[in-house]
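ugh ok fine here u go
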Amino acid sequence: MPGKTVDYYFCMNSPWVYLSQRRLEEIAEGQGASVAYHPVDLREMMLRLIGMDDPPERSELHRVYGKRDMERWAEFYGLPLSDEPRYYPVSQHLAARVVVAADRFGADVAPLVLALPRAVWAEDRDIADKAVLTAICEECGLPGDILLRAADDTETLERFGANTDEALARGVFGIPSYVVEGEIFWGQDRLDFVERALAAA
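structure:
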């Protein structure tokens, strides 16, 4: 009988991916589940969902609250968080394809999924820069030069696009999203429900 799986749809420049990665790993381990990592193209998702590649601008009140909420979660998880990340906004496409390539080669991508958004949100590093990406891969014990080359392979590009197609086909509309037994949980603040769903699976 197949084991329990969390299908995880996410982006590499998201603070919520950085803040929640360790918690997701802990939940999966505690429930004897695996995590299937599916980096997606959020801009493409937004274009297909609402006809624009970025959501409408948030109000100033919304932005202030969002920043404070990130700070609260960082405090809760005991993780550092830059007050004003030097390299955000930043394109996540190449970093996401590096993760897809690592997954293709059978590597454990969990360390990368923590390290890449951490680089943006806690270390003020540019994950769109190839030298930075290579270094981060090496820090995770992975061959950065090989993964950077593989990130532009046709198969990697196709898998990255397929992740986005699959997410939309399953009803995913935002990131991070977790799918357990066909049920979608949107947002890292729903991880307790992910844990309950795995326990019941």
